[in-house]
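The step that takes the researchers longest sounds almost clerical: writing a folded protein down as plain text. The outcome of that step, for a single protein, is printed below.
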Amino acid sequence: TDNGSEFQEQFHWHILDKGINHVYIKPRRPRLNGKIERSHRIDEEEFYRMMKGVIIDDAKLFNEKLKEWEDFYNYQRPHAALNGQTPYERFREKMKLCV
């Protein structure tokens, strides 16, 4: 992870309980965390711009909008990095190979 303080202690102990070694990237090196940084950029460019000018003062409503976005992103939106597939389509394809 990126050494951020958000939920760091809880996350660290949770993955240790699962037998996973927690590896930190070097501080101030976002390029070492490229997939996450790209994900944040897509959120900014697509989700937050879509919400620009919309006033939502209710956490429940915001979470509903975020869930709609996540569903669209994972099940409907083609991804260039996945050769035009959605993440769900790629997942299903990979699962067929495991059976």
User: Anything to note?
Assistant: The mean pLDDT is 89. The two ends are 31 Å apart (CA to CA). The longest helix spans residues 34-50.
